[in-house]
Amino acid sequence: MNDMTPTREQREARLEGMGCKRKRVEDVRFTQGKGQYVDDVKLPGMLHGDFVRSPHPHARIVSINTEKALQVPGVLAVLTAETLKTVNLAWMPTLAGDVQMVLADGKVLFQNQEVAFVVATDRYAADDGINAVEVEYEPLPALVDPFTSMNDDAPVLREDLAGKTEGAHGPRRHHNHIFEWTVGDRDLTDAAFRKADVTIKEMISYHRTHPSPLETCQCVCSFDKIRGELTIYGTFQAPHVIRTVVALIAKIPEHKIHVIAPDIGGGFGNKVGAYPGYICAAVASIVTGKPVKWVEDRIENLTATSFARDYHMTTEIAATNDGKVTGLRVHVLADHGAFDACADPSKWPAGFFNIVTGSYDFPVAHLSVDGVYTNKAPGGVAYRCSFRVTEAAYCIERGMDILAQKLGMDPAELRLKNFVKAEQFPYNSALGWEYDSGDYHTAMRQMMEKVDYAGLRREQAEKREAFKRGETREVMGIGISFFTEIVGAGPSKNCDILGIAMFDSCEIRLHPTGAGIARVGSKSQGQGHETTWAQIIATEIGIPSDDIMIEEGNTDTAPYGLGTYGSRSTPVAGAAIAMAARKIRAKAQMIAAYKLEVHEDDLEWDIDGFRVKGLPEKYLGMKDICWIAYNSPPPGMEPGLEAVSYYDPPNMTYPFGAYLCVMDIDVDTGVYKVKRFYALDDCGTRINPMIIDGQVHGGLTEAFAIAMGQEIHYDENGNVTTGSLMDFFMPTAVETPVWETDFTVTPSPHHPIGAKGVGESPNVGGVPAFSNAVNDAFSFLGTTHIQMPHDYWRNWKVAKELGVVG
Amino acid sequence: MIPGPFTYHRPGSVADALKLLAELGDEARPLAGGHSLIPMMKLRLASPEHLIDLHGITALKGVVREGDRVVVRAMTTQHELLGSDVIASILPILKETSLLIADPQIRYCGTLGGNVANGDPGNDMPALMQLLNADFLIEGPDGQRTVAARDFYQGAYFTALEPGEILTAISIPGPASGHGYAYEKLKRKVGDYATAAAGVVMTMEGGIVTSCSIGLTNLADTPLWAQEAGEAVVGTSLDDAALKRAADAAIAIMSPAADGRGPVEYRKHVGGIMVQRALKRAAARAA
């Protein structure tokens, strides 16, 4: 070799493949204001639609008069439920097997519910029109507290369900009952509790909150009457599912529906579901023959589309005196609002909440979930988590801390004592999951060492003494969270959405000069797929990631995929990408064998091409193979170099992590200071460490927001009081703590590249770490469990009730 | 979040602005930085038919010394206050407070005149103007008049400003040299209004407080000048008992609303804490 021959390291570096901190290619346009979002779509003759919304949380609609609105200059049409009934679209199916009003039909069931849709030549005229629509309401009593929803005298919310004792997920016990979902062995669990030395029981609430992405939900619908084709630009996390749903409910053939999800400004679950705005814009376009744009404003987004959480989890753990857990029993009261519009796989009315045994080896467990209706907005989306997994992680991680307190054990020691051991994987949990891999003890011990856990506990003990002596007004809390996620929905044996199996897909097409394009069924909303997907391909087939263009979001060109949410992209689409790349490499190997005049088995893969075993100078690079594939393929071989893969994963993946939060709370004001936050994530094989860090930073920031004050709050009359960013806590860089990140690597044994997904781990693991820190700060003064959110005034209230402030 | 229709005017002088206000009557509103008015228009809680933008009036800009007073013309932005040497040397509490108002983007637009004229109880400057005993200079169809900041506020968004008038300048007496000052603001995040805030200007001699004025923000539907609280510490060395007397006197005049920042009891309690902390920090700065 002469000096000009690149070294192996140089060849590898040139690829910018897996493991490389490759800079995000999409940021070139995002940082220069050149992204193309839905609101940037401007079609000739485009109209604008906006909603008349209900001021009442529960009311009968006496009349809707649109006459004056239709006289407002620029207003062309006003849709009501009556209009929609003519096309059988006044109601729409939800992902959870319920139905939802598109526009209020007879009554309204939550404040800001969609009542009428005004279509006008511009957004201002549409809003002028809204103010001119006259709606007469007859207010009804509002049901706000889910704990009273199944009282005998509770108001009837869903008159459309009168007499229906069977819902989508089994029997309904009450007019406001949606479903009961049970998992596990009740008798064995009850027996474990009867025999237990120690038990704890606590009602742990995870309050209602909202994903609140920077860009709200929006769409442009354009119906071409001549061709009979409907084009929808929209903020869709799952564009193909939207296409299929539209085909099913609008009776337009699926090939005549074009769904395009352009750049998306954050989703976090908010953009999975189908909303009335989409239906109304589509109908308005069909009615007017013109494109119609609908863009939610911030208030509408916070109050009407897709809340998250609102789980009230009565949690019981049985254990021996020396701290070995022997049983878990959880009952969840799930507040679903006015319609069950949960965005879960269809057969999972409480998502994967049965991951609630967490990282611990519970011999038996039982779970039951009751879903109920209230006069609140529908939703129940997975806000930066897999389906109901953050609720489950919060439940068990608080529960373990409460148990540790009762036993007088250190919470880290209790966890170490009960972890599923590395040699137990694959591990079958008491509630039915097969955990693919894990090494919890290593991760936990690494965390304890890095943060000097023993030292932190000493510091805390000293501070508590100082507090008791009156030398400080601050209490110090140390919050541990050790979470197990379940992501990558999902195997067709477990999961579907409206009957659509939850596979994902990739098509790779290499061009003659050694560059190419990959189209994927996932849809980035900021996750950086254009960067990381190319890195997988680069490593698999030796083409530099800079030479691979990634395209997503256009259902006409992308292969069918189930989209991006629930940390499913890397576990499912990432696997499809690797498998498609391997098909390419297999064909490339045949070409190389022919050209190098050896048998395929005599070749070995070497970073960016094939080499003859034992004859290192005989080498053919992928770039050359691309040219040959088109222009001089072996006799009998089809020209070209393309591959398609659809991947149905054999199992979920189970990322995990060890988090720790150190917090000081000023008892006089309730003001907290996060002194330290350490996050160790094990997401298996790491594709781009920089993007992983970014994901962890973002997820922790959302976890911080949720735990420390971010809520969708209703007053006792059903009025939502957190409808703007003045009141809904969205931390800025100033409030956000500094994050320390760390990792271990336990590859998934069943995933082609061993990757598990990471985007949502920090939210799942972060919330319990913050909440445990607050609880730990006050526990020495006599608290057992303090409900979230832990904002300043609530912290002060705790201190006040403990008698430590005047 | 979409305002109703309005006509936009941009006069070049105070006289032209007043003329427009007189002609257009109740349906016209002057526009300064816009941070109170524009959000209300977007929510259609305010729907003026005419906006009279004061940004074209150069005579409404600037900070000048007039004897022992500082005159800040109404359209001076918070960002400009931060850059003013006169403010930094004579009224450093204005600088400290400006830095606690929202974020740089808002401070580039938000003006002192708009902040004090709107009667928004969440704004920080009105309490400061009360504790400093500033005068508001007002021009209207009948000429000029002056209203003391302590007499200006009547309720949330209700002030002594009459229809057709514009608040053109704020005249602030310079506190004694060597005075101590502090503005303590508890807020949930950058950009939020105060959960409770207290401003203090005081003088000390030989460790004893010789004068003290205290203002309170967002603890009632108007700013509050806590006269008794200030007097409670005069003649003391700011011992714990004096601090408590001041906090109690301040709490006695607070009547905050319960909202997402906390219940009434909490907001009054932390209002008292802000008073005590501001007093201690001001004392530490007093020469």
TrEMBL record, chain A:
<dbReference type="InterPro" id="IPR037165">
    <property type="entry name" value="AldOxase/xan_DH_Mopterin-bd_sf"/>
</dbReference>
<dbReference type="InterPro" id="IPR016208">
    <property type="entry name" value="Ald_Oxase/xanthine_DH-like"/>
</dbReference>
<dbReference type="InterPro" id="IPR036856">
    <property type="entry name" value="Ald_Oxase/Xan_DH_a/b_sf"/>
</dbReference>
<dbReference type="Pfam" id="PF02738">
    <property type="entry name" value="MoCoBD_1"/>
</dbReference>
<dbReference type="InterPro" id="IPR012780">
    <property type="entry name" value="CO_Mo_DH_lsu"/>
</dbReference>
<protein>
    <submittedName>
        <fullName>Carbon-monoxide dehydrogenase large subunit</fullName>
        <ecNumber>1.2.7.4</ecNumber>
    </submittedName>
</protein>
<keyword id="KW-0560">Oxidoreductase</keyword>
<feature type="domain" description="Aldehyde oxidase/xanthine dehydrogenase a/b hammerhead">
    <location>
        <begin position="32"/>
        <end position="141"/>
    </location>
</feature>
<dbReference type="Pfam" id="PF01315">
    <property type="entry name" value="Ald_Xan_dh_C"/>
</dbReference>
<dbReference type="Pfam" id="PF20256">
    <property type="entry name" value="MoCoBD_2"/>
</dbReference>
<dbReference type="InterPro" id="IPR008274">
    <property type="entry name" value="AldOxase/xan_DH_MoCoBD1"/>
</dbReference>
<dbReference type="GO" id="GO:0043885">
    <property type="term" value="F:anaerobic carbon-monoxide dehydrogenase activity"/>
</dbReference>
<dbReference type="InterPro" id="IPR000674">
    <property type="entry name" value="Ald_Oxase/Xan_DH_a/b"/>
</dbReference>
<dbReference type="InterPro" id="IPR046867">
    <property type="entry name" value="AldOxase/xan_DH_MoCoBD2"/>
</dbReference>
<keyword id="KW-0500">Molybdenum</keyword>
TrEMBL record, chain B:
<keyword id="KW-0560">Oxidoreductase</keyword>
<dbReference type="InterPro" id="IPR016167">
    <property type="entry name" value="FAD-bd_PCMH_sub1"/>
</dbReference>
<dbReference type="InterPro" id="IPR016169">
    <property type="entry name" value="FAD-bd_PCMH_sub2"/>
</dbReference>
<dbReference type="InterPro" id="IPR002346">
    <property type="entry name" value="Mopterin_DH_FAD-bd"/>
</dbReference>
<dbReference type="InterPro" id="IPR051312">
    <property type="entry name" value="Diverse_Substr_Oxidored"/>
</dbReference>
<dbReference type="Pfam" id="PF00941">
    <property type="entry name" value="FAD_binding_5"/>
</dbReference>
<dbReference type="InterPro" id="IPR016166">
    <property type="entry name" value="FAD-bd_PCMH"/>
</dbReference>
<protein>
    <submittedName>
        <fullName>Xanthine dehydrogenase family protein subunit M</fullName>
    </submittedName>
</protein>
<dbReference type="InterPro" id="IPR036683">
    <property type="entry name" value="CO_DH_flav_C_dom_sf"/>
</dbReference>
<dbReference type="InterPro" id="IPR036318">
    <property type="entry name" value="FAD-bd_PCMH-like_sf"/>
</dbReference>
<dbReference type="InterPro" id="IPR005107">
    <property type="entry name" value="CO_DH_flav_C"/>
</dbReference>
<dbReference type="Pfam" id="PF03450">
    <property type="entry name" value="CO_deh_flav_C"/>
</dbReference>
<keyword id="KW-0285">Flavoprotein</keyword>
<feature type="domain" description="FAD-binding PCMH-type">
    <location>
        <begin position="1"/>
        <end position="177"/>
    </location>
</feature>
<keyword id="KW-0274">FAD</keyword>
